[in-house]
């Protein structure tokens, strides 16, 4: 169907028009009631100050527009038998969506104490933004929601993620004025170049322009219609406009726009699925322009409110103290004619509910919005198929992520029929050595393809776009609707989604306390191209701090892993992909890395999360170790093992214990994290009074923060990344940050009582090698031969 095709939908019958308006008015009434009232919900008596909440919280401005969208989605879902979901992007849109959920009955089914009667209405009103109640956002507590409209920018990417591999699903997405100005939202418009009309569902963006944000006009609302059309067409959409402030005219226009959009979507999908159309489609977008705070007070205290920024939150702010405000509130609420909308018991009248679909077709009851109900276990093959042989530790090398890529290839193969696994990343799948997956699935792509291109595929399930925000949003929407996935990213640049993952963790923490929310597959990050092997890209690509951010979050929801080799990466990835309701962060290298553990040993070590590598140390069990060399991360592990070998050679009488930590949360006390160790365990592993030299992948103060309450903390000395980076050799990076093997040996000598004098000559040798290193790399451009050619020969 061409962009210029204009369909002629049948006009609304008068009875249907009246019913739609009744539903919309009822939703508006309920939205206002939630913001203001704690008693007298049906206005059966004159409104008094004590009926009004002492603290007025909430946002009216966006609510009437959201109510309009919900009403008209009800109409088309019921008329066309659609399977539909809606993402409510505008911030603080809770009053509208809660109102509609209560009207359709899904809210009462979820929360039986909020019945569809006067008593239930009173509870609905009082609980909103009230202590012990519900938030003002469309939050996890809201039936039918997979998106919290708190932080703005993510609605459209969530919508596309939900539509992926859901060919029969329509995902409507309301984008608010403010959200439309964010960078993440702007990038999300390009998602239509990745949406497969054969295997994916459809996304219907509804750009709701009511003119204002909190205190300023919105950019897109002030663009001339032609300029806005050019922008949206440039994004690959066909705009359909609905503009007005007369309710009946807007109802007619909105119904026609919905019918037009859905006919276009049906034509696109049928053309693609029947093989009649192959070029990239141009999907419809509805541009809805209605006044901010529509149908609310036109003027308050002599100042205009409706259609201005003043309608954003609470238009009448002094209702308890100002009799005129109280009078205006009652007049406003009675303008919806509640006696026509609710019977004497407070139940919605049949005319109000005429447009509402039934059962799981209701927006608040669609199982896609409670994705754990649809989740199937991921078919993961036995790890032994991919395990690397380790006859002796520290002799052979493999690229850990390349090994993982073979496993992910088979997961892609195993899910090719059911299509419920996706790999996302910002143009880095091959760079991160995961390109084996292309044998099972190409990269999703609907735009032009040239002969030089590789692995682009209209039906592909590998998603690459150079926007970490969009990758994150796609995957979140995909997981929240009951599927599985993995996000592969350069370690330094995953910080771009710091705020997004924070919101997702808050969602998970909340849903864990909602028994009706079924667990979803975990959000899994693979962070590679990491700080210690970004020697070619330099300082700009060196930042290991994402884990610091993650470990600040809800302990029951976050997990961070540092597998030191290929087999441990396989074991950790297997665990993460099987898990539910977590955010798993896996930090692993893509460059050749020594193999330390067999598959059987790796599984046992990962299950422990932290353990002694007896073969690497020199303690014989007859006495406590003199020092502990601990490590977390692949490069720190190699440096610790090399330091242990030097100590074995130069100080053979020294009892050294080597401890490797895979699960970094193990360092926390058991009462602070589910994976934490008791003090008894911790002291048994690290000792209570011996020096511990800890080589850590990231910023060293994180380890101190995790272990600050431990008995032996005063003996803990951490080496890690000190924000010293450049374009240099791999070993020079660790030397510059004092994480190298020679520095670690010096640390042991400095901290074991009596060694400073006895081992002064050894310490001097270590210092001399560091000086020789600096001169060598400046002359040769490569690392010292004893470093570059090192293997474990213990």
Automatic annotation (TrEMBL):
Superkingdom of the source species: Bacteria
Q: What cofactor is this protein dependent on? A: thiamine diphosphate
Write down the EC number. 4.1.2.-
Its keywords, alphabetically, are: Lyase, Thiamine pyrophosphate
Q: Which CDD domains match?
A: TPP_PK
Where does the record place the Xylulose 5-phosphate/Fructose 6-phosphate phosphoketolase N-terminal domain? 13-373
| Family annotation (InterPro entries) | Phosphoketolase (IPR023962), THDP-binding (IPR029061), Transketo_C/PFOR_II (IPR009014), Xul5P/Fru6P_PKetolase (IPR005593), Xul5P/Fru6P_PKetolase_C (IPR018969), Xul5P/Fru6P_PKetolase_CS (IPR019790), Xul5P/Fru6P_PKetolase_N (IPR018970), Xul5P/Fru6P_PKetolase_ThDP_BS (IPR019789)
Q: Which residues form the Xylulose 5-phosphate/Fructose 6-phosphate phosphoketolase C-terminal domain?
A: 590-792
Task: Quote the Gene3D superfamilies the UniProt record gives.
Answer: 3.40.50.920, 3.40.50.970
Q: Which Pfam families match?
A: XFP, XFP_C, XFP_N
UniProt xrefs under PANTHER family: PHOSPHOKETOLASE-RELATED
Q: Which family does it belong to?
A: Belongs to the XFP family.
This chain's protein is named Probable phosphoketolase
